Amino acid sequence: AIIFAFFGNGIYICSYQMSQNFIMICAGVSGATPTEEMNGAGNLMDFLDEPFPDVSTYEDFHTIDWLREKSRDTDRHRKITSKSRESFWELVKSLLDAWSGWVVMLLIGLLSGTLAGVIDLAVDWMTDLKEGVCLSAFWYSHEQCCWTSNETTFDDRDKCPQWQKWAELMTGHSEGAGPYVLNYFLYVLWALLFSFLAVSLVRVFAPYACGSGIPEIKTILSGFIIRGYLGKWTLLIKTVTLVLAVSSGLSLGKEGPLVHVACCCGNLFCSLFSKYSKNEGKRREVLSAAAAAGVSVAFGAPIGGVLFSLEEVSYYFPLKTLWRSFFAALVAAFTLRSINPFGNSRLVLFYVEYHTPWYMAELVPFILLGVFGGLWGTLFIRANIAWCRRRKTTQLGKYPVLEVIAVTGITAVLAFPNPYTRRSTSELISELFNDCGALESSQLCDYVNNPNMSRPVDDIPDRPAGPGVYNALWQLALALIFKIVITIFTFGMKIPSGLFIPSMAVGAIAGRIVGIAVEQMAYHHHDWIIFKNWCRPGADCVTPGLYAMVGAAACLGGVTRMTVSLVVIMFELTGGLEYIVPLMAAAVTSKWVADAFGKEGIYESHIQLNGYPYLDVRDEFTHRTLATDVMRPRRNDPPLSVLTQDSTTVEDVETLIKDTDYNGFPVVVSTESERLIGFVQRRDLTLAIKNARQKQDGVVSSSVVYFTEDVPQLPATNPQPLKLRRILNLSPFTVTDHTPMETVVDIFRKLGLRQCLVTRSGRLLGIITKKDVLRHMAQMMNQDPESIMFN
Fold it and tell me: Is the Cα dihedral 605, 608, 613, 617 positive or negative?
């Protein structure tokens, strides 16, 4: 499409193409200098980078201007390139600037990998501390304690003299009702202590350290400013309280918060390089890569981390960021592997190796698990959002410490009697994923063995289930109900809480139950037509652990609506490269089923609940409204606050800045003609006037501000004029009053605009801000338009 556009004092011919990326190409004639035309906002003066105590680039809870940030970075890069030809030292500086991005990625990978390793080790130790202590070295976890013991046997590898439960240590007895009650009491006490410390530290030192962090990271990456959310205190407190929260036994994981921790690391290292600290757009490129590093260390999935950042988190993801994300994820994974927190030379706890291929007939239960995952995702999102909304709108929200203590107490009391809920969720998932070999001692592997069997260890045929398996099934069914209910009330409390692990646990439990059921059906009814072709007597046909893996993927997909990155994360997580097709089938099915009940995943739902100004690229706007229906001023509203090009005084500008909180002001020829000249940012005006008063003689309150190219000859008695044309954006983005809102919404999404001016034949009619767009979209969906939070 071709558009003839009138921008300021120039005429442009613009063509745009609506495809996957919004592309607009403009060419034309303008009265401004070539540099000003190239940069849009002009070649901004050096004083715009000078700090003033009460003026920041962007205010808290405001949106950045992506086009302006891109223009500033282009200016900076052009300046460095031109200087590099002047001397050898300038050439070295330009090379250092080019390499600074890779240095930042290296530092992010090293720090996030180290923090993840420390968190994993600390969580293992503190989780086991609830049940007992290692006498030879109290800082050892149960597993590490028994590794170091020379008296540990293979059959009793979980028992060793150096590890004692609290009741045995205090009373000298390990069996009986008394020791059981004492262990029960101390388990609950430790859980309450850990959760109380976590919520207290969050509340006192870093309120932003609570929750998953991914909804806020998505909002920040879309261009929103939340000061302090990625600060040093948040990083420190989130790391410490994440260990405490996971160790308390609550139904939450550390994977989502690790993305927040990695982004805090990214923000920390951005402050060391002016290239990133002074440009919010460039900073967000680093944060996108940091999110990939966070998932890389959370799951030991570097490729999955990059895809997660691309699919789920990032708003702007150029090719350069893709490579840097890949590098950051690689360094983070390498660092974690060097620490080896799980002692298995793997990046994750869940690594499994299956020895049986899957068969086409098994796609039916895999797809059924996908349906279950979609239904669970819908149930969880609706119930959790309803509970969180109740928390925000009732007295419950005023007592976050009490809520955490109550949920922890209920969780610990109900979890202890069941061995599958007593252990950490990661260990539970690991056991559910495992294939039953000849050396497994788990209840889930209590099958009736054929005494005449003489087969290799890795190829054990299907066998009838023993009493241990049936007992485990009852316990798993109770654990499934418990996890489904308690996770709804846990996610969103004022402590660090991830959702990946609890969702995977729900799916893994359901999948293992289905897997055992299919296995027993295949064993007892191998003559049925569905089993006859692929499951002969004495063969190893069904792997229940695979069903647990597929169920975990389905439930995680139902909650988050991930697809590609989810499948890659799952096969990196488990090493199950051969099982990509079942994982894909389950992930796609769960997304289809969940999308049938609502398009938003859990993170988008929490963004809406908190009123963050997030324009989701995946949403569709299909209403037939026009720009004139949304622009301000509306009928009966006061007129638009504008500046004139040659009749506004310094005092008028200062009064306008003081009386309003707008981010900028349109500049017109006169209040009568209202013909648009350009747009000037509030911050640039403030800095320019402050600088002029300090450094330019004769500028007083009655001085006239000129945005024209030439200042007319003034009588000697008149005060010194202030020329501010260089800070004027001569090509602000404009649409006509009859532009469909569908196009306007697309422009805001794909160009990251803060505001857009509405004109008719070059005459200014009004303005549309991102706030107006979001309110209009909420109104069209019958939601409260005032729920969007800005200040």
Answer: positive
Contact 474, 468 (CB under 8 A): no
Separation of CA 587 from chain center: 20
- Ordered DSSP codes for 685-718: HHHHHHHHHHHSTT--TTPEEE-SSSPPP--TTS
In the numeric block, which tokens belong to residue 237?
């407190």
Structure tokens at 771: 């706030």
Record the tokens describing residue 480, joined without a space.
């499934």
Chain-centroid distance of CA 572 in Å reads: 20
The residue-averaged pLDDT of 75-94 equals 89
d(CA 668, CA 644): 5
What's the longest Cα–Cα distance across the chain?
114
Q: How far apart are CA 738 and CA 272, in angstroms?
A: 47
Question: Which residue type occupies 644?
Answer: T
Q: Which of 519, 523, 578, 512 is nearest to 551 (CA)?
A: 512
Instruction: List, as one string, the DSSP characters of 280-317.
Output: HHHHHHHHHHHHHHHHHHHHT-HHHHHHHIIIII-S--
Q: Tell me how far apart the alpha carbons of residues 520 and 470 are, in angstroms, rounded to a whole number.
A: 11
pLDDT, greater one: 340 or 373: 373
pLDDT, average across residues 752-777? 91
Concatenating the DSSP letter of every residue in 481-538 gives HHHHHHHHHHTTSSSB-BSHHHHHHHHHHHHHHHHHHHHHHHHHTTTSHHHHTT--TT
Q: Structure tokens of 291?
A: 């999110």
Q: Which residues contact 384 (CB under 8 A, 6 or more apart)?
A: 487, 488, 491, 492, 602
Ramachandran assignment for 613, one of left (phi > 0), alpha (psi -120 to 50 degrees), beta (any other): beta
Is the confidence at residue 383, as pLDDT, over 90?
yes
DSSP, collapsed to helix, strand or coil, labels residue 349 as: coil
For the cut 50, the answer to whether the pLDDT of residue 46 exceeds it is no
**pLDDT of 108 higher than 60:** yes
DSSP state of 729: B
Which residue type does 468 have? G
> Any idea which residue has 């911050």 for tokens?
683
Residue 663, amino acid:
N
Sign of the alpha-carbon torsion through 456, 457, 461, 465: positive
Q: Does an H or E element contain 261, and which?
A: helix 255-270
pTM (2 d.p.): 0.86
Collapse the DSSP code of 52 into the 3-class scheme (helix H, G, I; strand E, B; otherwise coil) and give the result.
strand
The CA distance from 676 to 493, in Å, is 50
Over residues 404-430, mean pLDDT? 93
- Identify which has the larger pLDDT, 616 or 234: 234
CA atoms within a 13 Å half-sphere pointing along the CA-CB vector of 97: 19
> Contact 94/83 with Cβ under 8 angstroms?
yes
Q: Which two tokens mark 26?
A: 């403009």
Instruction: Give the separation between CA 649 and CA 215, rounded to whole angstroms.
Output: 44
The sheet that has 643-644: what strands, in order across it? 643-644, 664-668, 676-681
Tokens representing 605 are 């739902």
The angle at the Cα of 437, spanning 434 to 443, to the nearest 5 degrees, equals 70
Contact 495, 245 (CB under 8 A): yes
> What DSSP line would sit under 187-250, residue for residue?
HHHHHHHHHHHHHHHHHHH-GGG-B-SHHHHHHHHTTB--TTTTSHHHHHHHHHHHHHHHHTT-
* Residue among 563, 496, 419, 605 nearest 198 (CA): 496
CA distance 351 to 270: 35
- Residue 646: other Cβ atoms inside 10 A: 15
Higher-scoring residue by pLDDT: 457, 545: 545
What mean pLDDT value characterizes the chain? 84
Query: Do the beta carbons of residue 436 and residue 430 sit within 8 Å?
Result: no
As a residue count, the chain comes to 791
